Amino acid sequence: MSLVTVLLSGSVTSATAQTVRQEIRGVWITLNDMDILKDRIKLKDAIGQLRRLNFNTVYPVVWNSGYVMYPSAVAQRTGIQPFVYAGSDGQDLIADVTAQAHQQGLVVIPWFEFGLMAPATSELALNHPEWLTQKRDGSQTSVSAAGEVMWLNPFLPDVQRFITDLVVEVVTQYDVDGIQFDDHMSLPREFGYDDYTVALYIKETKKSPPANASDAAWVRWRANKITAFMARLNRAVKARKPNAIISVSPNYYDFAYRLHLQDWLGWVRQNLVDELIVQVYRPNLQSFVEQINRSEIREAQQKIPTGIGIMAGLRHNPVSIGQIQSQTRAAQARGLGVAFFYYESLWNDALESVSDRQSGFQALFEAPALRSAIK
Question: What is the pTM of this model?
Fold first, then answer.
């Protein structure tokens, strides 16, 4: 890619850039942060604080629970969203966060959080039951951290077209720097026994899908189909915005591939993604280090900007600044960037005071860091 280097305080010469650390320092802005996203003053304060603490990337949620966070012609045309999320002043949330972040020199990569998941009660699942896949016993739901969900069939052309249209809409409608998919741009291995997928498998292999959902050939066939879909998504995005950063934030590889048919290492090897953030949400430092030392992370690191997703805390499960610091330093020692889940838990809903938390992050990021962004 033809990229330029961006520093929080502005552009720098290449000679200066050589002396400044290059590192992803990001944070996800989730639905739990909606109070901030909807309020322009709070958002301005939040973005300003991130800049002062030398963060350089935000990943605002743009797709969650079968709904988009912006006025979408695709959603309207598909009949899935009878309302539009808007700010307290009626502002477009994605346009506002993009403009404010860019004013402060931060890179903006909207995040398709739910990927192929949709709650059973969403208009998407209710209005398009033909888009859903199923398990061998005919059931259509699984239980995740987001609750009980259904799964769009990633092998179905209509589903691929719908997701592609949403993604292309975001990168063309907004001045964003890329797009991010996470661990839900995948399919639990128990799924794929719907009529369409079964017929396609029989047509291509001359065999029926095995009863064992973890059968190696059945897993590989489905994973390859999802990879082919990612390739089409890549081409669609790059056709509209050639320098857009296609980011992916999966689980560690063995889990992602074996249990969710998500061959993200194959995506890296095939140049389908431009950035990798591997989610490693572990309270134990030894377990955390074991994961970030894995060979596939080192391999990806040789090709594209690579970072580690670190848990900053949940509302009912706060994480200490000491744990955050030890994990961040372990990642930095290996030349890896970091992204934190999620904004509100960086210094609110925390064990320590806001000032202590912010001082803790300042100690981690004492100076600005460079990262690549589109021109």
Answer: 0.94
Q: Provide the token pair at 69.
A: 């966070």
Distance between CA 311 and CA 92 in Å, rounded?
A: 28
- Are 27 and 343 in contact by the 8 Å Cβ rule? The answer is yes
Q: CA-to-CA distance for 265 and 257, rounded, in angstroms?
A: 9
In one letter, which amino acid is 151? Answer: W
Q: Please give the Cα distance from 191 to 175 (Å, whole number).
A: 36
- Torsional class of 10: left (φ above 0), alpha (ψ -120 to 50), beta (otherwise): left
Tell me the average pLDDT across 41-64: 98
Instruction: Provide the 8-state DSSP code for 156.
Output: S
**Average pLDDT of the residues in 284-289:** 98
Any idea which residue has 């021109």 for tokens?
375
Q: Report helix, strand or coil for 280.
A: coil
Strands 57-64 and 111-112: parallel
Please write the tens of the pLDDT for every residue from 253-262.
999 999 999 9
State mean pLDDT over 310-326: 96
Angstrom distance (rounded) from CA 222 to CA 219: 5
Tell me how far apart the alpha carbons of residues 187 and 183 are, in angstroms, rounded to a whole number.
9
